[in-house]
Amino acid sequence: MESLDDFINASVAAAHSAKPLKALTELLKKTVSKPDWFAEILPVTDDDEILLHASNELTIYSIKLTPGLQFPPHSHEMPVVIGFYEGCETNLIYKKQSNGELLQTERIDFEAPCVGQLDTDVIHSITNYGQATSRAIHYYLGDLINQPRSLWNPESNESMLFDNSKYFEYAKPNLE
Questions:
Q1: d(CA 51, CA 49)
Q2: Quick one: which of 51, 48, 55 has its CA closest to 78?
Q3: How many domains are there within the chain?
Q4: Cα gap 86→63, rounded to integer Å
Q5: Which of 95, 92, 91 lies closest to 136, judged by CA?
Q6: Which InterPro entries does UniProt cross-reference here (predicted)?
Q7: Model confidence pLDDT, tens digit, residues 55-87
Q8: Contact at 8 Å (CB) between 170 and 154?
Q9: b/e sequence 15-46, b meaning 16+ C-beta within 10 Å
Q10: What is the DSSP letter of 68?
């Protein structure tokens, strides 16, 4: 692969394979070990999230995460494969209690280069406890933009329909 178009085309082909999670994971394992390659092919921008591809079968984002911020709990309602090629990211995993409140049940730390997966029903928040900005490619196996999903207010624990502006508004300093 020599270009962003090549990477996107290979990603779309993997998403259409008989075992898309496995194929996308293998593709990211091959590419995350080359962070300079991503720097060469990705658009230069100050944005934290760059939409690279969107279809009914696959949404691809390039996401960077600033140290010291924690983003609120949210769901995706589809499987996710994440390839970390710079820095580190922590995922705090939650389960919804019978009263509707969230309880943190797990912590997963990712350090580049690595690939991780999140199941369809995962509720998580993300943070970067490191010193450097993390960078990762996120594959969502579906149309993330139009998928109804949830966001939780971290102060009130109130669930609402996901809203990207609220997602950034609810970001707060991490406490570790």
A1: 7
A2: 55
A3: 1
A4: 11
A5: 91
A6: RmlC-like_jellyroll, RmlC_Cupin_sf
A7: 999 999 999 999 999 999 999 999 999 999 999
A8: yes
A9: beeeebbebbbebbeebbeebeebeebbeeee
A10: T
Q: What is the pLDDT of residues 5-43, one digit of tens each?
A: 999 999 999 999 999 999 999 999 999 988 899 989 998
Q: Report pLDDT for 94.
A: 97
Tell me which residue range forms the domain holding 54: 4-173
Contact at 8 Å (CB) between 24 and 115? no
Q: Give percent of the chain with pLDDT exceeding 70.
A: 99
Q: Which helix (H) or strand (E) holds 174?
A: none
Candidates 84, 82, 90, 131; CA nearest to 112 is 84
CATH label of the domain that carries residue 82: 2.60.120.10
CB-based contacts of 109: which residues, under 8 Å, 6+ apart? 88, 89, 90
Before 79, cis peptide (omega within 30)? no
Distance in angstroms (rounded) separating the CA atoms of residues 68 and 78: 27
User: Are residues 117 and 53 in contact, defined by beta-carbon separation less than 8 angstroms?
Assistant: no
For residue 39, give the amino acid letter: A
